[in-house]
Amino acid sequence: MTDFTLEELAATIGERAASGDDNSYTARLVGKGVAKCAQKLGEEAVEAAIAAVSEDKEGLTKEAADVLYHLLVLLHAAGVSFDEVKAELAQRTGQSGLEEKRSRPASANWKS
Ligand SMILES: N=c1c2ncn([C@@H]3O[C@H](COP(=O)(O)OP(=O)(O)OP(=O)(O)O)[C@@H](O)[C@H]3O)c2ncn1[C@@H]1O[C@H](COP(=O)(O)O)[C@@H](O)[C@H]1O
After folding, report:
1. What is the ipTM of this complex?
2. Considering only CA atoms, which residue is closest to atom 42 of ligand 1?
3. pLDDT band at 95 (very low <50, low <70, confident <90, very high)
4. Mean of pLDDT values over 24-44
5. pLDDT tier for residue 112 given thresholds of 50, 70 and 90
6. Which of the residues 31, 33, 74, 109 has an alpha carbon 20 to 30 A from that of 1?
7. Could you state, in order of their start, the residue ranges of all structural domains in the chain?
8. 12 CA from centroid of ligand 1 (Å)
9. Does the Cβ of 16 fall within 6 Å of ligand 1?
10. Which CATH number fits domain 6-104: 1.10.287.1080, 3.40.50.300, 3.10.20.310, 1.20.1640.10?
11. What is the Cα–Cα distance from 62 to 35, expressed in whole angstroms?
């Protein structure tokens, strides 16, 4: 277990994006705009899905890291804070529909 947190990564992304440093991948990507950031996220998500279907656990681990990083970059570029995403997730916790789904066995959701 590491002491890495997504909050710290989101903060680093904000700092690097504001730096204007040409050596910063984050700054270069954010500088290309929301559409480019969204395209990169989509590509990384597809690569993660392919790794999963291929049962490539090491590949999936790396691609999942790429997805999380590029999601945070896209959120920054689009002006949505990670706190807002967390608040949305927190608000879903305890929602009756979700709780009910969780308490049912997965097979209860299968179409017959
Ligand atoms: N977590 C990451 C991270 N994950 C992936 N990447 C970069 O994402 C890129 C994805 O690779 P690709 O081959 O798909 O992209 P590319 O061909 O270089 O770029 P495109 O021309 O396709 O846009 C690589 O250049 C990776 O280095 C990351 N770059 C930065 N970080 C974090 O962001 C921090 C700040 O980085 P800089 O902004 O570079 O200072 C770093 O310390 C890390 O913690």
Report:
1. 0.92
2. 12
3. confident
4. 98
5. very low
6. 74
7. 6-104
8. 13
9. yes
10. 1.10.287.1080
11. 23
